[in-house]
Specification:
Elements (H helix, E strand, L loop, with lengths): L5 E10 L5 H18 L2 E7 L2 E8 L1 H13 L3 E12 L10 E4 L11 E3 H7 L5 H18 L8
Parallel strand pairs: 2-5, 5-6
Antiparallel strand pairs: 1-3, 1-4, 2-3
Helix pairs in contact: 3-4
Length: about 150
C-alpha cells in the first residue's frame, strides 16, 4: 500500500488593522466553507496583530488557498514558515481550527479555542486528540515570545 504524501504549508502574516471577534468568526466561516470544498485541513492562530496558519491537503489546493490569502487586504508581510510533504495530516479533523486570545462565539462547528482552552488540552487524556492542539500550543508559545510584528 502506497501512502500519498500530504502537502503542508505554514505562514505568518501581520493584520493590516485590529481584528475583532466578529471579523475572526467571518474569516473562520469562510475558511471552513472553502476548506471543506477544497479538501484542506488546518489551524489558524491570531494574537496581537499576528496571524499564523498551517494548511494541509493537495498541493494545488493549498497553494490556491495561499494565493487567496495573499490577495486578502487584511494580511500584510506574509512570510512562509514551512512548506513540504508529510505522510499524514496533523489536523485531519479540523476543516479550520482556531486558537486566539478569546473564544469565537457563534462560529461554525469545529475546533475553536481560546489560548486558555488550548493550554487545557495539554492535560487532556487520549493521545489521538492531543497531537494537533499540542502542536498549535507549541507554535503559539513560540510566537508569543516575539515582539509584535516580528517574524523570523
Amino acid at each position: 500500500m502506497t501512502v500519498t504524501p500530504v502537502f503542508q504549508l505554514a505562514y505568518t502574516s501581520a493584520a493590516t488593522s485590529d481584528v475583532t471577534g466578529n471579523q475572526l468568526r467571518d474569516i473562520l466561516e469562510t475558511s471552513q466553507r472553502n476548506n471543506v470544498r477544497d479538501g484542506i485541513t488546518g489551524v489558524l492562530m491570531y494574537n496581537n496583530g499576528l496571524f499564523f496558519q498551517i494548511l494541509e491537503g493537495d498541493q494545488s489546493a493549498v497553494e490556491g488557498c495561499l494565493d487567496r490569502i495573499r490577495a486578502d487586504v487584511r494580511h500584510s508581510a506574509i512570510a512562509l514558515a514551512f512548506t513540504g510533504h508529510v505522510e499524514h495530516r496533523v489536523f485531519a479533523r479540523w476543516e479550520m481550527g482556531f486558537a486566539g486570545p478569546f473564544p469565537v462565539k457563534g462560529g461554525p462547528v469545529g475546533w475553536f479555542l481560546s489560548f486558555e482552552e488550548l493550554e487545557a488540552c495539554e492535560a487532556a487524556q487520549g493521545e489521538g486528540h492531543r497531537a494537533a492542539p499540542l502542536l498549535a500550543l507549541h507554535v503559539y508559545r513560540q510566537l508569543a515570545r516575539r515582539p509584535h510584528g516580528a517574524f523570523g
